[in-house]
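Re: the request from the purification team.
They wanted to know what the chain is likely to look like in 3D before they choose a buffer screen. I agreed to run a prediction and write the result into the notebook, where they can find it.
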Amino acid sequence: MPEITAPGTYWLKPLASGASGTAYRIASPFSSAEYFVLEYRRKSGTFESSVPGSGLLVFRINTDFDSLGNASYNPAGGIYDELYLFRLNGDSTANGTLNSAHFSNATGRTRINDTTATRCFLHDGTPGGIRISDIGPAGDSIQFTVTSLTGVAGGPVRPSLRGTASVSFAPNPLRDAGRFSLNLPAAGRARIAVYSVTGQLVRTVLDADVTAGSHSIAWDGRDASGSRVAAGVYLYQADISGQGQRGKVTVIR
C-alpha cells in the first residue's frame, strides 16, 4: 500500500473498481504502533451498494493488537481495537454515528484532524496527529489535501508496546501447566494477566516489581478461585512499566 509521507493533494479511486490507487497509508507522528488507512467507498455496484454513502473513509490500525481483531475489545484489560473506523462524534468512550463515517463535500464533512467533530485519535484517546482537509466530491475519484504530518509541535512519539520487553508462554497449547518467559531490559513494575476471549479476567499471575533480566512465571491453568479453566482460547497481557505485550494461549483438556 502506498504511503503518504509529505503534505500535498492526493486522489483515490473507488475501492471496488479493482484499479490501483484505491488506498493510502499515513503513519501517526505520535505512535510507532498505530497508523491510518484512507479508502474511497462509492455507493454503487454489487458489493458497495449497501454502504451508507459515498466518500472517503479513514481507518486506524493498531499493530499492537495484530490477530486479536475487535471482538476481544476490553479497555479495562488493556485490549483495544485492532481496526477502528473514524465516525462523527466518535471517540475513545463514545461510539459516535457509524452511518456518518464517510467524508465528501456533499456531506459537509470535508476535514479530519485532532479537533474536528470527526476527530482523529489514537487508541487511548490522545491526538492522532494527521490533518486532512478539502475533501472533494465523491465522483469517479475523490480528492483530498494532507496539510500536516507532524501534529502538535514537540509532541512525543509514543513507542510501540512491543520491542521494549518480551513475553511468551510455553507449552502452547497448554494441557496442565506452563510458564511465562519474561525478559525485561530494565527493572520495573510488571503485571501478567490471563483473560477470556470476551475480556473477562481469569487470573492475574504476576503483579510485582521485577528486576531487569529473564524471569519465569508459572501458570497452572487455573482461574483465581483455583478451578481448572475450560478448554479454549485465552488471551494474556503483560504490562511492564506502562507498556505491554499480548498473546494467546490455547488450553486443551
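For the purification team: Residues 150-163 have pLDDT under 50 and may be disordered.
Please add any questions underneath this entry.
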